[in-house]
Amino acid sequence: MDNQNQVTAGNINQPQFSRSTRILLWAVLPALFIALVITSPLTAALSIFILAPTFLLLQYDRAHPADQRVDLETFTWTFVLTGTVGVAAVIIVQLVVSTAFCFALFPTTAFAVLKEVARSESDVATLDADALAARRQIAEDGRYWVFMLAFAFFAAAIPEEVLKYSGVMYAKRRGRIVHERNYVTFGAAAALGFSTFENIGFVYAAAKEDKGVADLVLALAERVLIGSPMHVMSGLLIGMDAARRDFRGEVLSLTQILAVPVLFHGTWDFSLFGVSALDGNVGWIHPRGKSLLLVFGIAATILGTLVFTVQKRFASWRAQQKKSK
Fold first, then answer.
1. Are 217 and 286 in contact (CB under 8 A)?
2. Cβ count within 10 A of residue 211
3. What Cα–Cα distance (Å) separates residue 156 from each residue in 48, 141, 150, 197?
4. Taking residues 89-112, what's their average pLDDT?
């Protein structure tokens, strides 16, 4: 690592934030929170639960010896930039990629298909029988399933996992790295930056639709208990593999680092869209009844497999770490 990325344990224990970081922490972020309180007090209150995984990550990091902890300033910027600039960049990529695939698959009806994909649940609830039948016809079209597969991997999984990797590389080049474990923490921080801001957006939309407490609780549970853990574990995998390359000298390409996270991510997104399509819906519409149980079953399977994969990687990581001592 470059000398500029090295700090002492004392510097970590007593962080000296730059002026820009102090402005971010004491002016920008509070202003954003106040704006959220004004526009959606309920979302602002629930944001405490959405931020809980981030606080747990910091608590876990601070439990390690001082010379293995992340630099808090680097952590803050990694989290915030992936959650703001990163989310905006991913949204743009998703719009471009999904539009391109839609026009390739539905050359004469692409605008109509995209309109249906973008419909909100409250909008769908107001449609008449003919409009719902038209949506079901799209959902049953084989080309739409190809579109969902392309969107899941090329518009969602790949851009979002690249963003997490970019967060680790930002920490390496612009921040401070003191231990290989920092890569793992920064991978999780980048994942949480993205998922936290994304989750606030989902909960904000659910609160604005005002469909009841049950739907809001469901949206919050989906995002915090399923979405965030999946994002975090993919970030952990990316951080570990990047550290294997940069600290341990292993030859790993970007494709090799991203392959497993992209596979899990894309499979999860495609499964969600698939269940929605089986119900005759286009885009993501919350399933009900047996379809909801199917979603939870898929989530348990993918999340359980991902947990097993991360645990196995960590065991291998620690074993190699002990051998190198």
1. no
2. 16
3. 26, 21, 9, 16
4. 96
